[in-house]
Design a protein that fits this description.
Blueprint lengths: L3 E9 L6 E8 L5 E6 L4 E8 L6 E8 L1 H16 L5 H7 L2 E2 L5 E2 L1 H9 L3 H13 L22 H11 L6 E6 L4 H10 L14 H4 L18 E9 L5 E9 L6 H15 L5 H6 L9 E7 L5 E10 L22 H17 L1 H11 L4 H7 L7 H16 L6 H19 L1 H19 L15 H9 L3 H13 L3 E9 L2 H39 L5 H6 L14 E7 L10 E9 L3 E9 L11 H7 L5 E8 L5 E8 L1 H11 L2 E8 L8 E13 L3 H14 L4 H18 L3 H13 L10 H5 L23 H4 L1 H16 L5 H15 L3 H10 L7 E8 L12 H20 L3 E2 L5 E2 L5 E2 L5 H4 L9 H10 L3 E2 L8 E2 L31 E5 L6 E8 L11 H18 L4 H7 L4 E9 L4 E9 L2 H17 L1 H5 L2 H18 L3 H13 L5 H7 L8 H10 L12 E6 L6 H7 L6 E2 L45
Parallel strand pairs: 3-8, 9-13, 15-21, 18-24, 27-31, 27-32
Antiparallel strand pairs: 1-2, 2-3, 4-5, 4-8, 6-7, 10-12, 10-13, 11-12, 14-15, 16-20, 16-21, 17-18, 19-20, 22-23, 25-26, 28-30, 28-31, 29-30
Helix pairs in contact: 1-6, 2-18, 8-16, 11-27, 13-17, 14-15, 14-16, 22-30, 23-27, 29-32, 33-37, 33-40, 34-35
Length: 1230
Amino acid sequence: MDHFSLESTVSLPGPSQPTPVTVYKHLATGMRLVFVDIVGPQATATIIVPTTEDHTGYTIATAGRDGMAEILPVFLDHVLHPTLRDDQYVTEVYHVDGEGKQQGVVFSEMASRENSEADLLDLGLRKLLYPQSQTYYYECGGLTPEIPKMTNEDIKAYHQKFYHPSNMTIVVAGDSLQPERIFKTLIERDILNTTEDKGGVDLIQEMDISKGREDAPIMSQETNFTSKTIHFPSADEDVGSIGYGWLGPNTFDVKTMVALDILFRFLHETSASPFSQEFVERRNPLASHVDFEVKGCMDTSLLLLFSGVPIRSKGKKPLANDEGGDEEHEHSEQEDDEEEEEDNEQSEDEHDQSDDDSEDHSEVNTDDAEEAQDLYQPGYFHSQVVKVLSEFVQNGLSDPTEMSRIIARHRTKINESIEDDPHEAATSYLVPDILTHAYLEKDKTKAASIGTRSNIFVIIDELETMEPQYWRDLAQKWLLEPSVVEVCMIPDSRLGKIIKSTVSQKQQELVDGFGKVGLEKQVVMVTEAVAANKVNMTPEIVAMMPPIADAAKVPTLPMSAHYISSAKPGSDSRPFKLVQVVETNTFFTHVKLCLPLTHLDEDLRPYLVLFQELIFQSSCAIPKFVQDKDGSEEIEFEHLDYQSVVTLVSNTLVSHEAAVGFGNDIFACSWLSELFVLACSAERSKYKEQCQLLLRVLMFTEFTEDRVLTVAKNLATQTVELKRDGADMLAMVSTRMTTPVRDYELATKYCRKMDMSPRPTAESAQLESPTVILGNDMAISAFRQEPFLKRVVQELKQKTDQVPKILSKLERIKQAMLQSISEVVVNSKRNGNSAAAGFGQIGIPVGFGSESGETKDPVGLLTEVWDQELALYQATTGYSFVNSNGNQINNNKKKRKPSESFHQHQEQPSVRLTKEAEEAAARAAHMTLDDESLANKPTVDSSALSPFPFPRTPYKPLASSSNGTNYAPSSVLIPLKSITSSFLVSIVPCDIVYHPNTATEENHLDHYATLLLCEILSRSEGPLYSAIRGNGYAYDASISVYLWTGQMAFEVRDAMDPIKAYDAFLDIIRLMDTDWEAAVGGQFEMETAQASRAYQTIMERATAGGTLSWVLRGAVRGYQSVEELTKSNNYLYRVGVPDLKRVYHKYFKQFLNGRQGLTTVLLTPPSPPESIKTHFAQYGIDFQEAALQDFEIDPKFDFISSATPISSVIVSPEGTSPSSPLSSSASSIV
């Protein structure tokens, strides 16, 4: 402690107890170390350097405090004393290669980002809010026209100026940290020695944020409203976005910052909020999403963002942006003609849709007038924003208690963020104080006031006492009276080609400028730089490394788990069979129900996205039994409009989800698309209310025409925005290429383009599968949903005879989710799918049940509520369910009051089977019929059907035919107008998930060896990093395994040269076969990968949410206990080099097989050169060029006469490969 002094102590807020914070100061340099005591296995350190925009944070995370004590001095040494060699600048920042292409890691990243809608909007707002003298005015990552002007000497000078201990603060967070141990290591290793110090900077003088304030556009004396239009490249011109910015309060004014956060939560958070009501939740939406941000930088700002704003004027806009259009673009007439032909071809696909819409628009009404308004007309959209704010200022809250509920939710959401990521939450509370001291405190000898936001809950309590007028005045002062800036983002389908043309012109200029000899020198320079940057771990250095830490010694959150059957004795009346109960350190109670969808009728599947978005955001008619005066029971309804439902959900639940599969992102999910997930969390005192609300929303949601229309319109808009993102589209197309499909899902233009003439049929042996189970990945994909949602909107607007069918199909999905496991089995067989049982998970705090009012049987309470609500559902709909004995479940015949429920009036389509269909299904499933049962229902033995392990179908493409030919295309090339760099993925089968009870020793070793080899190849400074990122071919390259689907994927993102990136990857795969150590390394590399994998496993259990996910994933894979799951991780340390080589030959070498089982997707900017196809063909990758529109599934099958049956057969066209977009995988064919 001779070198450090204790400066202050404070406590940050926490969900259950305060978090202690201790601040020390290094006496010689003034550098501060802030220690935050957070319970859990993770330790993090963030080195904060005040630089552009106002600071840079370097973060490292370790498993436990011991690892942090060892690594922090090394990490700090790298930040303070980097070598910054010229060869590092060549690979990491910028260079020109032998073909005249501009490359480098930083250059590649910015080339892919700088023309994106989000980046242009953010920079556009900052340029209007701040003067050129402030760093906020600039893009801190650098723009591609500016990066080539920089030199390595500039970087060295910048580093010397700002990267000095006196200008640094280190935040270290973890469990039971030992500051003295870290101090000792820093001093012993002489990390903070400043004897030869020449750096340091006076931040207050260098970066005075008050300088030039009057020069910012927002400070204009002529107007208090400044607007700017910016165009961005996009394949479509349907929707854009509009953003608003205001200057915020002083950074010291924490109370006002918190109050504005709460005010914006009220204005926008839910679909019942004022902004959502005015802009999103309307028959003709003005936007699909509203967001806000209170930016707590040194010069604060308030941002309000509207995305999915329709473009209602289709005339071509000027290409030059309002910001000056300083770049000259040359665009040939030929390119214009080609583009016009392409646009015309796309418009033909939408011709019928347009005709139908025009018929709808022929009537003059208010809807038409609204849709004719140009939302980007200067001042129009802003006037609507002002309208909402003015109404609030003038009228205040309709309910005086509403703000108290918003404040209570704000408090709870803070607790949730602390529980979800305590390290990030703690750092975010501390950084503003660190920067305030750096930029605004002139006397640096004063103690830094770090931890001023520790009283945030005190501030919130104070705000809760404020009169309603306070909030009206707040909106008036900060949002209505001050100047505001507006940025309108408008898509332009021409910009992609223009940007590409500009890049080509620049490349030609560089080729001409360097000449042949100069380009040859560039090749030598880059080659030498890559070689120089290769990490050379000598035996002497390796010997100095500490051994791999024992993961078992790292403290983890306390956790226990057990399983409880949810079934009644002798009955399977519920669709979820087992409930996993997990007790851990959490402030909340968590309920998750995973309901099977395997039995869903095929005509219902495209409605799943609508269903998941309508749940929690639609009106409900909630029934309850009441006794009349005569003692008889009747049912009364409490009708809640959707705004009331949204408000009730917001007030009761901390979080909630209704989604297809796990990791759902509306139009895609990570895995288990065979399930519908209904989940929520709440404060522990609200557990019963939580269960009741969750199930009532599921069972008593009403699907109304207006609500479905609004939600469908907004979803359709989101599909348009989704298709602009290269990474999202890469995932969507690759899923389409490798996912089993139903026959009607082949109704795409891409399939019609392919040669479908008869070909040899694959042998039956190639079609075998241990499990046949088909999910809903394609049903929820934007390829299905975009045309489907547009058709839904069309039918609803025109009020066709399909409207009742649309509403009834949504109700049928609900009915299917409530079916018993027996009915799930029968209907799954009928639809050609394997049955699956649902399951649940309940996460509770340690000791739950000990406090007053808490149940000691959370599963029993959940199932009791389920049965009560299901009885009410049956009584109000007349719908009954059947158990495994063929008996109707809870057939309550109660009276209904005639004027009440939506359910009473709605025509209830039955998903019940006819007797003939049931008999056929029973025979197919080897069941027997009991004629004496109540309704002649099949007697089904579902006792053997268990959700753990959950059935799955791994990816398994067809083998080639006997003559080596693979008939259907397995690779596709898609040019996108919305991207400026390329994205690529190659996929091969790799199934390394085994049932724990049947897995062999080699199976377990294969699992971990495969994951380790992926880690070795993809790690920072590893083979892929050096060969691809190091050469500037792409910003990122990695190889990974999708465990559940059984796929291994090599992926390249933001590539400037996808050809060279793929060449480099295959060179590594080949070298592994001939010179393993040169390609992969030896024991040290393997041990490093083991440490990395061990860390990832430990970090999964660092938070309550991560713990719940980890243990549920283990159950789904078949692990019966936490101990069994933990024990399986021991195989990680038993993997040796022979195991790595074995899995190399089994799985990794498949990438060299070309047409045999390899699926490749490449997305490029517009007009890719023909050389791409030629080059990849040598590897057996025969690209078929296509457009995204070619993969859209024709919705005509979704809107046909109910008398016409829809095929549910899972098909593979004769001779096609399941890895192709034409068919399902072999493992899904029945």
